[in-house]
Structure formats: C-alpha cells, structure tokens
Amino acid sequence: MLCGAPALLRACVAPTAALAAALLATLARCALLEPGDAVTSALSPYFGTKTRYEDVNPRLLSHPESPQRDPELLAGSCTPVQLVALIRHGTRYPTAKQIHKLRRLHELLQDRGPGRADPRGLGDALTDWPLWYADWMDGQLVEKGQQDMRQLALRLASLFPPLFPRQNYSRLRLVTSSKPRCVDSGAAFLQGLWQHYHPGLRPPDIAEMECGPPSVNDKLMRFFDHCEKFLTEVERNATALHHVEVFKTGPEMQSTLNKVAAALQVPVNDFNADLIQVAFFTCSFDLAIRGVKSPWCDVFDTDDAKVLEYLNDLKQYWKRSYGYTINSRSSCALFQDIFQHLDKAVEQKQRSQPVSSPVVLQFGHAETLLPLLSLMGYFKDKEPLTAYNYKKQAHRKFRSGHIVPYASNLIFVLYHCENATTPKEEFQVQMLLNEKVLPLAHSQETVSFYEDLKNHYKDILQSCQTSEECKLPKVNSTYDEL
C-alpha cells in the first residue's frame, strides 16, 4: 500500500463527496511519481544517516544496476584475488521510538483548532497526510532496502568479475548482525548475485542456496554492545552527549524551531528539537521508502536542513567517532578480522592454493562502519565538532550522510600483481567507500603494498586487544590511611 488512501477508498462503499474529494487530493499528492522515477529534494544532502545511497551516488538514480568503474581502480597486470566488504543494511523503516514521536507531532497539528490563518496550508496538508507508520515496522528492512542490496550485488559482480564467477558462489562467506534488517540485507544481496548468474530465474529460498544463509556474529558486527567501557562511559553516560544537548537549545536550533512553529501555526513552546528532527526525518523516510516528496519536506529550507544535519552529526561524532577514544578502539577486533582474511588469502596465493574465501561479506550498521573508519583515521577535522562551532564546521569532513548512508560499504580489494619487483610487492590493496576509491588516510595514495598498509596499522593489528580496550578501569573502593 503506497499511502493508505487506496485501501480506504476501497473500504468506503459510498463515500460522501467531501470525503471522496479529500481522498482524491491525498491520492494526487501520493502519486507525485511513478515507481522508478528519480525523486530528489533540496534537503536530500542533509539527512545524515537517513540518507539514500543514490543521493551519495546520483548516477544510480538513472542507472541503478550499472557499475561505474573508478579510474583509480587497479587493472592490467594486477588481478583481484579477494574482496572483503563491510556493508550497512539497506533502507529501513523508522524505529518504534521515532514513530511514537511522529504521532505526538501529528497530534499537535490536529490540536491546532479552527480559525487559524494558514495561507500556505502547510499545517492542514500535514494533518491530512496519511500517518501510515506502524509500531511493527520498528527499523525493519523495506522492499527498497532489499533492492539496495540486490543492485549493489549486481554492480560489484560486474565490477570484479574475477572474484564473482559462478563457481565461487558456494565459497562466499557471509557474516551479519543479528538484527533482522542486516540478516535480510545479506539474503537480498545473495538474491542479487543469483540474478547475476541466472537472469530471469526466480531465486530460491535463502536456505536452499549453495552458500547457505549468513552466519550471525554480533561480537564482530555489533561490537559496541559487547564493550563494557563504551557502554558505561558513553552509551549509558548522561553527560557523554553534552554537546548534542547544548546544541538542541542553542541559537541555531531555536531559530529553526521558531520558523517551523510559525509555518505550522503551532505554539513554539509545544515544540522541541527532538520533534523537529523527527519531522525532518519523516521527509527522508517518505522519500527513501516510497519515493514520494511529502509535505513534510516543505516544512524546512536548506538552512534548517544544515542545522538538523549538524545535530545528527554531533551525535554520531560524540557517540560513534572521534568524540571518545573508546568509540573507535572498540572496533579493533573487526579491523583485525578483516586483515586475518587478507592474510589468509595472501598465504594461500603464495602457496599456489585457491583462495578459500575470495569474497567476504559482512552486514552491519552505520554504528559498525563509523567507529572503524575513525579507527583508521578517516574524516577527522582539525577541530572537534562542538555545540559552539557550527559556523566554523560548515565545510567539515565529518558528514555522516556522505560517509554512511543506507547501504554504505567499505571494501578492501586485495590484488596480486605479476610485475612486482620484490616478493613484498606482489600484493597490493585498495579501499573503496561507497564504490569509490578511498585514498589512504595517512598518504592520500590510492593504492598500497599490502605489507606497507599492515605496517602503518601495526599498532591496531598487534597491540589493540578488545578485552583490554573495553575493560573498565579499576576504582579503589577502600582507602588505607598510613
């Protein structure tokens, strides 16, 4: 059901003229676009972690299944021998918590009462706009999210044909978070590969596929849930997000609150930053899930969007990235796991053995990718993001929507190069972020000899033990006076 109104029309045997007119108006708004049309909004670049993947790669709006080969990708005498990909789940429904906030906002609009001058009609349009979100949705993967994964699989298989031949299908290694949206993303990716190998044939059930269903490993893909130091000092610490809370009541957010309250004809005292943010995200959900530019998008201009993007980035920065050291250090085990796969591939290749796992696919969350990228030194600004330097951070590197949109992916590609001059130079590695070559954080080069990359990250690979990093410091509970 697209917007809810079609089912309601079918349920009404003899609707009144007024009701029919209202429903037809709703249908007209819902039918702004046909499926497959490219929908964009001026707000699209600012949705943070709720950003559509195609807004980071706009070419996919018109060519969703065709890869665009980055000219920096190695070719010629270098052959890819292994791909290790860390993939965020595809587009999802809002969480139950977000849905409850949306209902509260909807009630505020309905309680405005009659007689209000509303020349734009925006408040009325939103009151009439179908509130179609239900509690059961609670962050589940949507059909668009499955499509994100199927299309990503098709593009990667076309981009790296030596790694995705039909005979390698049974050797795929899939690991996923326990969250259904991640498990379902892995299954959809496999369906995309099936489509690549068997065009036009309906894929079998995941349990019947040769490679079998993904294996669940939360210690890798949700490491933050298993790190006591992070849980105590950040997740459960009321002061950890100090800058987020201060920004919510700061001048930039107050200006946005005043503008939105005036536009919706609702007392500003009835609003807060959380309600404004969920209204903003509702524009993004309608756009991402249904391909519809809803009236919620008309509530905000780009100045508002930049403020709300910064609020979201502040949260991600302080809770998942450079705000606290433990945010990134908690991901050491995942980083080491990636290099263990690469090490094994190098060893097998050196012994002239087939690589046992030419493709390793790991499905997680934005909260999985951001700490890992921070651990590797990416997207670090000269100054930290704070509640007080919004204007100074206008051109910041850390913009979560550009880094970890839905279906975002960090890919390590290991190459064997025939023309290497020394044994150490036989293997080279490149990284891609969202299918674009990611220059090395420490050198800005687009390729590295594998041993050189390991040497650069030797502290993480050798010295970062998750059990030690995540251990809470001991506090002396007694004091012995001398």
UniProtKB/TrEMBL annotation:
<dbReference type="GO" id="GO:0030352">
    <property type="term" value="F:inositol-1,4,5,6-tetrakisphosphate 6-phosphatase activity"/>
</dbReference>
<feature type="disulfide bond">
    <location>
        <begin position="283"/>
        <end position="297"/>
    </location>
</feature>
<dbReference type="GO" id="GO:0003993">
    <property type="term" value="F:acid phosphatase activity"/>
</dbReference>
<dbReference type="GO" id="GO:0016312">
    <property type="term" value="F:inositol bisphosphate phosphatase activity"/>
</dbReference>
<dbReference type="GO" id="GO:0005886">
    <property type="term" value="C:plasma membrane"/>
</dbReference>
<dbReference type="GO" id="GO:0030351">
    <property type="term" value="F:inositol-1,3,4,5,6-pentakisphosphate 3-phosphatase activity"/>
</dbReference>
<keyword id="KW-0378">Hydrolase</keyword>
<dbReference type="GO" id="GO:0004446">
    <property type="term" value="F:inositol hexakisphosphate phosphatase activity"/>
</dbReference>
<dbReference type="GO" id="GO:0034417">
    <property type="term" value="F:bisphosphoglycerate 3-phosphatase activity"/>
</dbReference>
<comment type="similarity">
    <text>Belongs to the histidine acid phosphatase family. MINPP1 subfamily.</text>
</comment>
<dbReference type="InterPro" id="IPR029033">
    <property type="entry name" value="His_PPase_superfam"/>
</dbReference>
<keyword id="KW-0325">Glycoprotein</keyword>
<dbReference type="GO" id="GO:0046030">
    <property type="term" value="F:inositol trisphosphate phosphatase activity"/>
</dbReference>
<protein>
    <recommendedName>
        <fullName>Multiple inositol polyphosphate phosphatase 1</fullName>
        <ecNumber>3.1.3.62</ecNumber>
        <ecNumber>3.1.3.80</ecNumber>
    </recommendedName>
</protein>
<dbReference type="Pfam" id="PF00328">
    <property type="entry name" value="His_Phos_2"/>
</dbReference>
<keyword id="KW-0472">Membrane</keyword>
<dbReference type="GO" id="GO:0030003">
    <property type="term" value="P:intracellular monoatomic cation homeostasis"/>
</dbReference>
<dbReference type="InterPro" id="IPR000560">
    <property type="entry name" value="His_Pase_clade-2"/>
</dbReference>
<feature type="signal peptide">
    <location>
        <begin position="1"/>
        <end position="33"/>
    </location>
</feature>
<feature type="disulfide bond">
    <location>
        <begin position="78"/>
        <end position="417"/>
    </location>
</feature>
<keyword id="KW-1015">Disulfide bond</keyword>
<keyword id="KW-0732">Signal</keyword>
<dbReference type="InterPro" id="IPR016274">
    <property type="entry name" value="Histidine_acid_Pase_euk"/>
</dbReference>
<dbReference type="GO" id="GO:0005788">
    <property type="term" value="C:endoplasmic reticulum lumen"/>
</dbReference>
<keyword id="KW-1003">Cell membrane</keyword>
<dbReference type="GO" id="GO:0005615">
    <property type="term" value="C:extracellular space"/>
</dbReference>
